[in-house]
Amino acid sequence: MEKGPPRQAKWWYSTFHTVTAMVGAGVLSLPYAMAYLGWGPGTMVMVLLWCITLNTMWQLIQLHECVPGTRFDRYYDLGKHAFGPRLGPWIVLPQQLIVQDQAILLDLHIWVHPFLPVSAPQFRFCFWGVSVAAAVMSLSYSTIAWVGCLSRGQVDNVSYDYKQTSGADYIFRVFNALGQISIASAGHAVVMEIQATVPSTPENPSRGPMWNGVVWAYFINAICYFPVAFTGYWAFGQDVADNVLVGLERPSWLVAAAANLMVVIHVIGSYQV
């Protein structure tokens, strides 16, 4: 019998939680990142980072129960086990805050935590439906973006030359583009908490169902990210905006209202993960 709160999540719950944690509004800036990398390097970086992050996700899933009889329900707990109770928090917590990439997340957690202890597995189980809605929003606004780019077609005199800027500025923007693509596959900081919702027995450890969920989440990640990045860059070339929706003129009400509303709904839903 497992101690602590009940763990009743199905493997597909982890799919929706992982998609919600990974696929965010940053997908809309991927064509802009491509403009600084070009077709060849940009495609290579996106595929390479997709594979690397999938592999590191697999490693974290295996580490969740690396000590017999113990489940590391939080990334924080795994950090303390790996680096010690004193050094571990100093190594792990800054990384988590940087990866989340927004102080608002921390502020909201501080305000909501006394009322909704969403870190507990039973609450995550209750809120899986919120993750479903947020994941659907991610898939929806990503689809609107790449379908809108295909529908619009290429701009006049589209150019795929590298953006014109000074040498030093260009180097920094290349690193920024690499960061945009890297952060697009974020979600590792909460994978331990997501796996904590999955039941585990000696015969059927949680890593099996969790890995199934992550594989499907990465499939959804791919069909959100790659089409947006490639069609956005194909349509606008080096003139693409940092938010690809800005360049879509028709149908304006669909882009401005529907897609951006979906982004807002997704962001709200992602806080509980």
Question: How is this structure best summarized?
Answer:
The chain has one domain.
What are the SSEs and their pairings?
Elements: H1 11-22, H2 30-37, H3 39-63, H4 75-83, H5 87-100, H6 103-112, H7 121-126, H8 128-152, H9 167-183, H10 191-195, H11 207-236, H12 252-270
Task: Describe this structure as you would to a colleague.
The chain is mainly alpha-helical. The protein has one domain (11-270). It contains twelve helices and no strands. It has helices at 11-22, 30-37, 39-63, 75-83, 87-100, 103-112, 121-126, 128-152, 167-183, 191-195, 207-236, 252-270. α8 (128-152) packs parallel to α11 (207-236). It is globular, with a radius of gyration of 20 Å. The relative contact order is 0.25. It is found in: Membrane. InterPro entries: AA_transpt_TM. Keywords: Amino-acid transport, Membrane, Transmembrane, Transmembrane helix, Transport. Residues 8-92, 127-273 form the Amino acid transporter transmembrane domain. It comes from Actinidia rufa.
